[in-house]
Amino acid sequence: MIEMRVAGIALDAVTRSPIVLLKDGSDRRALPIYIGQDQARAIIGALEQQKPPRPLTHDLLVNLLEAWEMELERVIIHSLQDNTFYAVLCITQGEKKKEIDCRPSDAIAISLRTGAPIWVMEEVVADASIPVDREADEEERKAFRDFVANLRPEDFIQRGGLGNENESS
Fold first, then answer.
1. Could you list the residue ranges that cross the membrane (predicted)?
2. Cβ(51)–Cβ(35) under 8 Å?
3. Which end of the chain is more exposed for a tag (fewer CB within 10 A), N or C?
4. Whole-model pTM?
5. Ordered domains of the chain (ranges, CATH)
6. What string of DSSP letters covers 8-71?
């Protein structure tokens, strides 16, 4: 899994739909997730640390967690199916742990209010992320190509007798 953070909200240039943008710790990959207007407002409100006069839905959920002495340990965005992301809230209460199915936009809005980390499965990042730092990506690819080009067959031979356990039988 890859820990990611909310980089901000953007609007799709064509559809004008809001997108929450997650970035990895190295700022090399970004994961755009299309969300609704209400979810965008909830995420922006959390990013700007706005306190509404009355609790909104995500604030209410955080209040419930606190009242029942539960903690949002982390959010996991675990799959992408038919252009739809799936997430869970990982909640603990004492020794008990539960994973609660959740839309990623709601999970993100709640995580921002609690300070819980956002984790994304590697295959989701591989399938849906966009490169942010193409130059660094190209340097990494070049270093790997150079490494592979300099490999010799003897680099693959196991040393120290490993793999020879069955020679005497």
1. none
2. no
3. C
4. 0.77
5. 2-149 (3.10.690.10)
6. EEEE-TTT--EEEEEEETTS-EEEEEE--HHHHHHHHHHHTT---SS--HHHHHHHHHHHTT-E
